[in-house]
Design brief:
Layout (H helix, E strand, L loop, with lengths): L2 H4 L6 E5 L12 E8 L2 E6 L3 E5 H7 L13 E4 L3 E10 L17 E3 L5 E3 L3 H7 L7 E10 L3 H7 L3 E5 L2 H5 L6 H7 L16
């Protein structure tokens, strides 16, 4: 693996599954990479809805749902790790100029150049009373790769990578997110071979 490839930081990028990736969770998936370092990577699948919506999730955690805009939004299967735990991907709470020293929520990862991911219940409590971030994606579980694992999968032609687009995450219908992510690379599904090519 070339040294410069090993140092490529894919934080705030999409991983787009190649057709040859047949894993049950990752087949035809788009993963938003929240963190990528030499130690590994962490991301959330943004196009695999679970069988519950936000209204049902809020009932399960015994919170009211006062955001009509989110009630029928699906909850997503973010990945195979900690599937009983919620992860809330949302737009930045404050613009950079207004950002306080402490995060508004108890446990928030600020994603450089991108969004924020909160794992504490206080963000759900804010949403439940009609406040909180305007644009959110809630997932159960996340995807994780150990040191060098993601780089290895990319070199094996399992994933395409492209800078993430908030509109694909928040504004694109779920069924179209895979194709829209490919379009960010100027590609369409028919252009991709399901076979890994090694010339």
């Amino acid at each position: 693996m070339p040294a410069d490839f090993a140092l490529t930081n894919l934080t705030n990028h999409f991983l787009i599954a190649m057709p040859g990736l047949q894993d049950e969770i990752f087949s035809r998936s788009v993963v938003y990479v929240c963190e990528h370092s030499q130690r590994g990577a962490l991301g959330l699948v943004i196009n695999k809805p679970c069988d519950i919506d936000m209204k049902r999730l809020f009932e399960k955690v015994e919170l009211p749902m006062c955001r009509a805009d989110l009630s029928n939004t699906p909850v997503f299967l973010g990945g195979p790790v900690q599937t009983e735990r919620g992860f809330v991907l949302h737009e930045a709470t404050f613009a950079d100029a207004d950002k306080p020293a402490e995060s508004v929520y108890a446990s928030t990862m600020v994603i450089p150049g991108g969004l924020e991911m909160t794992t504490s219940k206080d963000v759900l409590e804010a949403i439940s009373i009609g406040a909180g971030p305007r644009k959110v994606l809630v997932s159960l579980g996340y995807a994780a790769w150990g040191e060098g694992q993601l780089e290895s999968e990319i070199s094996e032609n399992s994933w395409l990578t492209v800078a993430a687009s908030n509109s694909v995450i928040f504004d694109t219908p779920v069924a179209q997110r895979y194709e829209q992510a490919l379009l960010l690379l100027g590609l369409e599904l028919w252009m991709l071979s399901p076979d890994a090519g090694h010339a």
